[in-house]
Design a protein that fits this description.
Elements: H1 2-14, H2 21-34, H3 43-47, H4 55-66, H5 70-96, H6 100-112, H7 133-150, H8 155-172, H9 174-190, H10 195-219, H11 225-232, H12 244-261, H13 289-311, H14 320-323, H15 330-351, H16 357-379, H17 396-407, E1 413-415, H18 431-435, E2 438-439, H19 445-452, H20 457-467, H21 477-484, E3 491-495, E4 503-507, E5 511-515
Parallel strand pairs: 1-2, 1-3
Antiparallel strand pairs: 3-5, 4-5
Helix pairs in contact: 1-5, 1-6, 1-16, 2-4, 5-6, 5-7, 6-15, 6-16, 7-8, 7-9, 8-9, 9-10, 9-13, 10-13, 12-13, 12-15, 13-15
Amino acid sequence: MLVSALTLLAFAIGGYHPYAEDGGLYLAGVKRLLNPVLYPRSTAFALEPARLSLFAPAVAGIVRVTHIGLPGVLFVLHLLSIWATLFAAWLLATRCWEVRAARAAAVVLLACWLSLPVAGTALLLMDPYLTARSFSTPATLLAIVGALDMTEGRRRQGILLWAGSLALAAAMHPLMAAYALGATLILLCLRASRRTLRIGGTAAISCAAALFAAALQHSAKAESADYVRVALTRTYWFPSEWRWFELAGLMAPLAILAIAAWRHATSPGAPRLASETWVRTTTPLYVEPSVALARMALAAGVTAWIVAAIFARADSPAHLVARLQPLRVFQIVYLVMVLLLGVNLGAMLSSSRLLSGARRWAAAVLLLGGTMFAANRATFPNSPHLELPWLAPRNPWVRAFLWIRESTPKDALFALDADYINSTGEDTQCFRAIAERSALPDYSKDGGEASIAPELTTAWVAGQSAQKDLSAPSENDAQRIAALRPLGVNWIVLQSSAVTHFGCSYQNATVKVCRLP
């Protein structure tokens, strides 16, 4: 019951925007599988997110079997992914804390902060839309649970849970599964009975990760100037390009974990954390699960930071390691940090004399969840907080894209401003997924695809050049035709302020849809 109630809380706080950001990228691939006539041009950009993942085939298969339609399937799966994440967190909490209130406190804080940004990695703990990470995240937590079970007398059960969860994560998101594998191997070492194995095993895994990164960098093929241009647009790959508060988002969690990881190293008379009485008791030979968890996250985070600092640099001769985004490990770091903070928050609330117990928790949830709710609303100011399947959209860009879906040929090729997705009021709504039409590659989301798949670089560069400043006052129709016609474009989306003599079949206060003569 608790996890189900917290699922609705997390959903209400984080919002739901199924066609925004990466959600739109993945859904274009799903729609292509459901209807192969879609996206006959620039097809590679529609299919790229599904290339190494079973996410799109799985979602498309569920739609075919259930016959409830893609919007309904996305909504249900999104809720299930939140529930699975919180349930996996609850299972992890049961391995670390004996007191039920401690477990509840950990999961409550995670539900409130499930949409927390992970430093400058361009990741959230959980997105407000369905992607492959929606499944790899709970699978990662379950793999950690399995690793703990393997060291506490439930070896067979633990191995099955660990291996099965990693397999699921790999099927959905191979990169996140690889980082989960590394983190759980560190955890297994840290739970060894001998101190030399704990230290030596952890150091060996960290060194192996650094050596693997060095080998990859050394073996990387030469990159074209155009690909380097694409790679450098992904500033979240390079810590040296991060702003100060994003760097603080790396340092602060590691500092918090360091405190939790070595709390038993204090002298007998030293003060202990408020959550100390809630920690499980284990055989003295072994490190407590909660302490091992904190040390695992700390070791994984420090290793990733070192690898990124050495190899994920904008001025590197090759960007293969940067492309693997080692700092994505910090999703695990943040998950562990939030659970540990939740336990300490619960301990402080339980000992506080302000208000009654229920009122204290209500005030804490209102404060912590309300802060995240406000941040999420600021991210999507022109869209409903919950874009539910049965609600009519109010975003003017989305309304234009829906008109395109209903009123233009399926083989049409569209052009939009190169960085349309970051235009004022657009709310990062993805054109392909909503309009179900082919489009020249855009700067932001398609640039991310080209940075991961270098073979798309040439098409991406051509698209950027052709779509540069399409709605600018200095641009005229002759220039637009000269840039777009060689690429086969026959429709164009312009901002309403753009001056054009093209025939525009649809227009609202923000955008207009026009056909090239």
